[in-house]
Design goal:
Elements: H1 2-24, H2 30-36, H3 43-49, H4 54-73, H5 82-92, H6 97-110, H7 114-127, H8 132-145, H9 149-161, H10 168-179, H11 183-196, H12 200-222
């Protein structure tokens, strides 16, 4: 027990020192940040000092990263180091679902880096194949971006096939299909929802979309 407490204390000290290294580069000018990122502690460095308690170190780093993001929102710093920190955190704790989700949103929405946001979600999906929320988040980011509804549909459909998935995954897949021009696929998904749902409201909603899309398809085929 005493040894375990000693190890945990060492983790906090070592993690504090490594975070201090990261903190020291926050004050440098933005044009130097990309060069300085190579001097930040790597995932391997944090694994070495974790003494097997990687989740604890990941939690400490996540707290610091949230503070770092808070500083960005207050205009005190940029987020040049955010992706690196997110990668380290999820390397240390591959099952840290919320870290993947929030990191992806910040990368895609705050930094305008959709590709990087999707990449960290892909990492999360690979490490957590039974978590439907990560695939759903990827579909949602593509949906918000509006430039690739095909990929949006693909990820929503993936999410819908994972056990325990919310029915909204199929609803968004149907919506993305329609926005991407695949009206027939959208109609089929709405029909599937109407047939499988025990919720009268959901069934009525699906029927409404089916009617609307069938009219749209009919008009399209006339031309």
């Amino acid at each position: 027990m005493k040894r375990k407490l000693t190890n945990i204390l060492l983790i906090f000290i070592a993690a504090g020192l490594l975070v201090g290294v990261s903190k020291s580069v926050e004050g440098i000018s933005d044009n130097k940040r990309k060069k300085e990122i190579m001097y930040l502690p790597s995932s391997d460095a944090f694994k070495i000092v974790s003494f097997g308690y990687r989740n604890i170190v990941s939690d400490i780093l996540w707290f610091k990263t949230v503070q770092y993001y808070g500083g960005y929102r207050l205009g005190e710093n940029s987020l040049s180091l955010f992706q690196h920190l997110s990668d380290v955190i999820t390397d240390l704790d591959p099952q840290f679902i919320f870290a993947y989700q929030l990191s992806a949103i910040i990368l895609a929405q705050d930094l305008g880096e959709l590709k990087e946001g999707i990449e960290i979600l892909k990492k999360g999906i690979e490490n957590n194949p039974l978590n439907w929320r990560l695939a759903f988040e990827a579909g949602f980011l593509y949906y918000l971006d509006g430039s690739d509804y095909k990929e949006s549909e693909r990820y929503f459909k993936l999410a819908s096939t994972i056990p325990g998935a919310n029915a909204r995954a199929t609803r968004f897949a149907a919506s993305a299909a329609a926005k991407g021009g695949d009206i027939k696929a959208s109609i089929e998904m709405w029909k599937s929802l109407a047939d499988s749902s025990d919720d009268p409201f959901m069934a009525d909603l699906a029927e409404g979309y089916i009617e609307k899309l069938e009219k749209e398809l009919s008009e399209k085929e006339k031309h």
